[in-house]
Amino acid sequence: MNAASTSYEAHLAPHRRRAGAAGEAEHATSQNSFVQVVVLADTHAPRRWRVCPPRVAEHLRVADLILHAGDVCTAAVLAELADYAPVTAVLGNNDGSDVAEWGAPRTAELDLDGLSVAMVHDSGAAAGRLTRLRRRFPAADLVVFGHSHIPLDESAPGLRIFNPGSPTDRRRQPHGTLGLLQIEDGHLIQAAIVPVT
């Protein structure tokens, strides 16, 4: 397994939160005591994502960190997202060498303010998913994934799994969606799947 492992502070320290798409003004740490994370997957640029959709940008402007669970399809989108906040991304089945060269591994494991988070693009079949992800990421409190374009927030004792859906390629879903996470002192205090179309 090709896994990247990092801590939230190490990831965020080189470039604290920035305001707006242009990243003109540096912020200090978040005014809230929690870490605000925007979760994206399956943006499928440039066919589905030419520029950041306005309703997605609204959420990115207040993000401390952005997670992208694969199928970004071009590293230019990751550079665009990095103008808002630090980005951690994993490779999807449609991602090319430029996304890998940007630094996206097949899986990632992060410590976000004490919460152990793992990321992978394809979690496999729905049947047995919680058990399979627990086996694959035994230390994780939360596993973020994509691939299906179907939003999902499911829990079992000791593990929560979260798919934000896609903000740009909703397929048979009623809306394009993204995910919002609030993390404080090692606890996921809020998770939401938010429509953006």
Secondary structure blueprint with pairings:
Blueprint: E1 3-7, H1 8-12, E2 35-40, H2 54-60, E3 65-68, H3 75-82, E4 87-89, H4 97-102, E5 107-112, E6 115-120, H5 129-136, E7 142-144, E8 152-156, E9 159-163, E10 177-184, E11 187-195
Parallel strand pairs: 1-5, 2-3, 3-4, 6-7, 7-9
Antiparallel strand pairs: 2-10, 5-6, 8-9, 10-11
CATH architectural arrangement? 4-Layer Sandwich
Q: Which residue ranges are poorly predicted, with pLDDT under 50 across at least 5 consecutive positions?
A: 12-30
Strand-and-helix sequence, N→C? EHEHEHEHEEHEEEEE
Quaternary structure state of the chains depicted: single chain
Number of helices: 5
- How large a portion of the residues is in β-strands, by DSSP E? 25-35%
Written overview of the protein:
The chain is of the alpha/beta class. The chain has a single domain, classed as Metallo-dependent phosphatases (Purple Acid Phosphatase, chain A, domain 2, 4-Layer Sandwich). Helices cover 17% and strands 30% of the residues. It has five helices and eleven strands. The strands form two sheets. It has a six-stranded mixed beta sheet with strand order 1-5-6-7-9-8. The longest helix is centred in the middle third of the chain and has 8 residues, at 75-82. The N and C termini lie far apart (35 Å). The model is unreliable at 12-30 (pLDDT under 50).
